[in-house]
């Protein structure tokens, strides 16, 4: 039975399946954070995206390298007067066309973790072919009147080709090394065989330039991976927030439905319970008062009084539950008006005086006179002060004393303080006493009749007035409760305007 009751929708405000529904999102966020934290560069998931970006960049800049090759060929023919360079140009353009063909083919297919390594190997193989073509250029002997001019032309062409390749292929790892290692080997062989200082210098300079470009492209590649990691984490967090928001909206909707059901239940129970309770209270009071005639058995009169007191306690409990439920549901509306806090306190003392005399308790009043009116709900303030006074009388021993004060606060507001010399409340029990249906150990041991709703209602009413409730207590010394209204609730009195003699109009003279 308990198992089925725990699964009722009205009782489960928050969906219990939230953990299961969020597990996939949580795992995605966790894996992304691990990749970012531990530097998971080169993971298959990100390699797919990097390869797609490389393909797009290759197709977008398809004309850059061919134009440079044609320009370099024209300059080379002009310098060396060697038409055979055109043959190398056709070979270089063919290698670049091969790269474009594979890029177009890969674009039409879907890059997946299953085929990403195959495509990376294909593009690197194409880069090796292009590198061999550039190695032919590096090892091609060029003649001219000035021997230094072809060397300068060759070195400048190779450095520009290295730069263009580095910027257009940094998303493909090891592309620089695969492309220009053959070129470096050709330059090294040429320098070793010729023993020419210029050839040796060009080989060393190209080696340093290639290392620098490799370092730059590697940094750019890692930065792109990290940007993808940030993007992935952001997308996962957005998904998690969307799931959390949808769950929050669902929980709010269910809470509103549960709150509406509670309000309907309380309204129905209020009517269903109050009607028979009023009859019980009325008949028991008639019997206890012997209005219709004496009761032959004294026990009947005592039982009638017990029935009346128990019924009154139950009615008070119902009223307090309804008040607290209306406050919690936000349906407790204040009927505000200009009222005197001093007069309300005096009326409440008069109402509680009879109960205090029954326990021989003295109530000392210390009121500051000439307190201005406050803008508040008179019925609500009366309920606050009566609750606090009732608690004080309830827990003050025989022959004790209660002091009630009313006056100004340091910030310009007004307060009512009620202090007794009862048993007090242990400090650790104060949060319990302030919670709904909470009762301290003193109340439980003394078996004092109460609902445990008085102080929560006082707190809620003062909160509706933008006020404050303070509870101070010390064991075996007593308890002090303070209800504070803020300064903005005080109605300032405006002095009467004195009669001022009207200003006579000045007579104009036309003399």
UniProtKB/TrEMBL annotation:
Annotated GO MF terms: phosphorelay sensor kinase activity
E.C. number: 2.7.13.3
SMART domains linked: HATPase_c (SM00387), HisKA (SM00388)
Domain of life: Bacteria
Membrane spanning stretches: 59-79, 85-104, 116-139, 151-168, 175-192, 198-217
One protein family per Pfam: HisKA
Record PROSITE patterns: HIS_KIN
Organism whose genome encodes this protein: Rhizobium rhizogenes (Agrobacterium rhizogenes)
Top EC group: transferase
Name used for this protein in its record: histidine kinase
Catalytic activity: ATP + protein L-histidine = ADP + protein N-phospho-L-histidine
Keywords: Coiled coil, Kinase, Membrane, Phosphoprotein, Transferase, Transmembrane, Transmembrane helix, Two-component regulatory system
InterPro entries the UniProt entry points to: HATPase_C_sf, HATPase_dom, His_kinase_dom, HisK_dim/P_dom, HisK_dim/P_sf, Sensor_HK_Regulatory, Sig_transdc_His_kin-like_C
Coiled-coil ranges per UniProt: 234-261
């Amino acid at each position: 039975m308990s198992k089925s009751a725990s699964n009722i929708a009205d009782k489960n405000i928050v969906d219990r399946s939230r953990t299961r529904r969020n597990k996939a999102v949580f795992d995605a966020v966790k894996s992304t954070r691990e990749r970012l934290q531990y530097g998971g560069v080169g993971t298959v998931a990100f390699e797919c995206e990097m390869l797609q970006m490389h393909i797009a960049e290759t197709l977008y800049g398809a004309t850059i390298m061919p134009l440079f090759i044609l320009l370099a060929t024209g300059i080379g023919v002009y310098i060396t007067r060697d038409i055979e360079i055109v043959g190398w140009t056709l070979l270089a353009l063919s290698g670049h066309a091969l790269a474009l063909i594979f890029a177009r083919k890969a674009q039409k297919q879907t890059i997946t973790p299953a085929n990403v390594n195959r495509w990376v190997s294909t593009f690197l193989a194409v880069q090796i072919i292009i590198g061999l073509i550039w190695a032919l250029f590096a090892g091609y002997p060029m003649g001219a009147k000035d021997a230094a001019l072809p060397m300068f032309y060759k070195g400048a062409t190779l450095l520009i080709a290295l730069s263009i390749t580095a910027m257009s292929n940094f998303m493909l790892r090891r592309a620089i090394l695969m492309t220009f290692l053959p070129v470096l080997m050709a330059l090294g062989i040429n320098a070793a065989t010729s023993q020419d200082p210029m050839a040796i210098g060009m080989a060393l300079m190209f080696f340093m330039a290639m290392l620098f470009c490799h370092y730059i492209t590697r940094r750019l590649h890692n930065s792109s991976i990290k940007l993808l990691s940030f993007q992935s984490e952001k997308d996962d967090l957005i998904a998690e927030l969307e799931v959390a928001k949808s769950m929050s909206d669902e929980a709010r909707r269910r809470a509103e439905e549960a709150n509406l059901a509670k309000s309907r239940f309380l309204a129905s129970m209020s009517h269903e319970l109050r009607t028979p309770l009023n009859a019980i209270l009325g008949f028991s009071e008639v019997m206890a008062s012997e209005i219709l005639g004496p009761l032959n058995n004294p026990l009947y009169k005592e039982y009638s009084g017990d029935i009346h007191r128990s019924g009154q306690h139950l009615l008070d409990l119902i009223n307090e539950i309804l008040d607290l439920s209306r406050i919690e549901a936000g349906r407790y509306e204040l009927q505000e008006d200009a009222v005197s806090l001093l007069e309300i306190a005096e009326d409440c003392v008069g109402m509680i005086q009879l109960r205090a005399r029954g326990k021989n308790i003295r109530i000392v009043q210390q009121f500051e006179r000439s307190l201005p009116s406050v803008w508040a709900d008179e019925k609500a303030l009366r309920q606050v002060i009566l609750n606090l006074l009732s608690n004080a009388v309830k827990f003050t021993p025989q022959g004790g004393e209660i002091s009630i004060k009313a006056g100004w606060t340091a910030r310009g507001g007004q307060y009512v303080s009620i202090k007794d010399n009862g048993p007090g409340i242990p400090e650790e029990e104060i949060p319990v006493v302030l919670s709904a249906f909470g009762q301290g150990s003193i109340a439980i041991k003394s078996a004092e009749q109460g609902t445990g709703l008085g102080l929560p209602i006082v707190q809620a009413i003062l909160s509706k007035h933008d006020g404050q409730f303070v509870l101070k207590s010390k064991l075996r010394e007593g308890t002090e409760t303070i209800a504070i209204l803020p300064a903005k609730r005080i109605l300032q009195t405006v002095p009467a305007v004195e009669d001022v003699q009207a200003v006579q109009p000045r007579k104009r003279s036309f003399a």
